[in-house]
């Protein structure tokens, strides 16, 4: 059973109607289901049972403290890309010793903070970054654990903006540079070689590219072993896709079974960094129709959510299902679902057949991943409230922003 379903013509989140949530918390409002979050994470745990494995939730997909809290309580590790995300993990009682630090541009301060927090591993993406980490760790009289993010040069067959495993993008270390870099790392007094990692892209809907990447990384591990460089852990990144429309991605269980089968009986600790697949379909964006503006060529439904709340349609031309919160009898018309922001790219969906009236509520589905975490204050729009449903209860997990707070850090010029 899905966490979001109709009951008597009313769209519900677990035991609550979305209508009651809109009345209590206003719109636009992100609504998450605790049950859906837990179900996804438990599928990962089940798929890893009997293996030496660590599932590190990729915080950037949805970094709300309540979401991190749900995963931390289930024993999750975390994959972070900034000291801000590290602070969130610590605040949510996540375990730094199960935390990986990814990203191409770590600053010295970030390295220092992460070493002080005792994180599990730095995923290194360049020779220059390795040198900086070595210097920082030595200045702290310690050795920093590292893994190199190798770029296996496989085509993830996903949107170019979220494909990261090809030779010509900014991520990772070219396959042929990996061996020399590991050799160098082995000589650095501030570095301890811990693992190897890859992450080839996001919203992958086939296992093929994951397997291809795994094979290349395993070949590297073997080449390193020949040189006496031992790898403790293999981090296979994130990237497993979800169904937004008609995609048929492998289930979490099938994805893990395929990869573990390929790994065979190798003595490696395995890590994963799933983001989207754990949160994407566990959240929706609740919005109200402000105006209907029927036209000659197109009919516009102007809603109170916009590209600043959910950027994916504007950024990737992403498709999100849009459902009426209350099903109405009557004729459907095709609507352009647009926000109030002054950009033609400010749309949430094109050409959606809906029977709606002004004042109706709509649910933008599959908005739990890269929704709120990519939101902005463009047009000086306060960010939406976020709530988490847990059975019949609803918890406010981030209050709607106040307008004054949006410019509280700004200053007028001296008189
Ligand atoms: C974004 C990212 C992830 C998570 O990707 P999803 O597609 O959301 O699973 C994992 N690892 C790294 C290094 C990332 O940049």
Gist of the model:
By secondary structure, the chain is an alpha/beta fold. It is built from twelve helices and 21 strands. Strands 4, 14, 15, 16, 17, 18, 19, 20 and 21 form a nine-stranded mixed beta sheet that branches. Strands 5-6-7-8-9-11-12-13 form an eight-stranded parallel beta barrel, surrounded by six helices.
Question: What do you see in this structure?
Answer:
The protein is an alpha/beta fold and 415 residues long. It has 2 domains: 4-32 and 280-406, Lyase, Ornithine Decarboxylase, Chain A, domain 1 (Beta Barrel); 34-276, TIM Barrel, CATH 3.20.20.10. Helices cover 28% and strands 25% of the residues. It is built from 12 helices and 21 strands. It has helices spanning 18-25, 34-47, 65-73, 83-91, 108-117, 127-139, 175-185, 208-226, 252-263, 276-279, 312-316, 403-406, and strands at residues 4-7, 10-13, 16-17, 29-33, 53-58, 77-80, 99-101, 121-124, 144-151, 173-174, 191-197, 233-235, 269-272, 283-293, 300-303, 322-324, 333-338, 347-354, 361-364, 385-390, 393-398. The strands form 3 sheets. Strands 4, 14, 15, 16, 17, 18, 19, 20 and 21 form a 9-stranded mixed sheet that branches. An 8-stranded parallel beta barrel has the order 5-6-7-8-9-11-12-13, surrounded by 6 helices. A 3-stranded antiparallel sheet has the order 1-2-3. Helix 2 packs parallel to helix 9 (252-263), helix 5 (108-117) crosses helix 6 (127-139) and helix 7 packs parallel to helix 8. The longest helix has 19 residues, at 208-226. The radius of gyration is 23 Å and the shape is globular. The relative contact order is 0.16. The mean pLDDT is 95. The structure holds pyridoxal-5'-phosphate. Pyridoxal-5'-phosphate (PLP) is lined by residues 58, 60-61, 79, 102, 199, 202, 237-240, 273-277.
